[in-house]
Amino acid sequence: MTTTSSALGYAELPALLRRMTGDDKHTFAATSTLDVLWVLYDQVLSVDPERPDDPDRDRFLLSKGHGPMAYYAVLAAKGFIAVEELDSWGSHGSRLGFHPDRVLVPGVEISSGSLGQGLALGVGTALGLRAQGRTKPRVVVLTGDAELDEGSNHEAIAVAGRMGLSRLTAVVVDNRSATHGWPGGIARRFSVEGWETRTADGRDHTALRQALADRRSSRPLAVIAEVEPKEVA
């Protein structure tokens, strides 16, 4: 989990979100990921804002990069960026763009762009860590259910299962926005390719923590976080 002496709590997140304005169409995309992001950074990931480039850190890849307000809010709460910087979000000269930039923002592992890229990058990251002999770091990729319509995910899911990338976790935030869906549901889409799958209420922190708990398995893990969109409080 994140370690910082100045960390804020979950109760402060709505106020942090309200500091960012100007991209209202992606508000629901952001708020649907808020609880998952919080549980990851507060209870699951081994990351440290004082050592953001630690080679043995866990890697978190935000594939669902549009509407990154929730991500920036959590990074600010955990000390990766200053809270005051949230006020400049999306403005000229700000490091905080409408898509996160790994070169500019501390703690950001990938620069997100077109949807559907993150899981393939996660597979590559997991393979790279394996080649280096690093068995400690987890690679966690957050995607949306609509992203799974993108063809690159078909290949990434198949490769990860067949190569036994046990340190890879895909978190699919399912707010039922996908155009095509999948026969038998999202969990089946992963399980038929050899993944371990778990489903949890995407607003229930205890359920999410249990679903995301590390485990010793030879298979990658897919966590389906089911959510209903809601307004920023």
TrEMBL record:
Pfam families assigned to the protein according to its UniProt record, in alphabetical order: Transketolase_N
GO molecular function, one term: magnesium ion binding
Superkingdom to which the source organism belongs: Bacteria
Transketolase N-terminal domain boundaries: 26-220
Protein name, entry field: Transketolase
Origin species: Saccharopolyspora rectivirgula
Species lineage: Bacteria, Bacillati, Actinomycetota, Actinomycetes, Pseudonocardiales
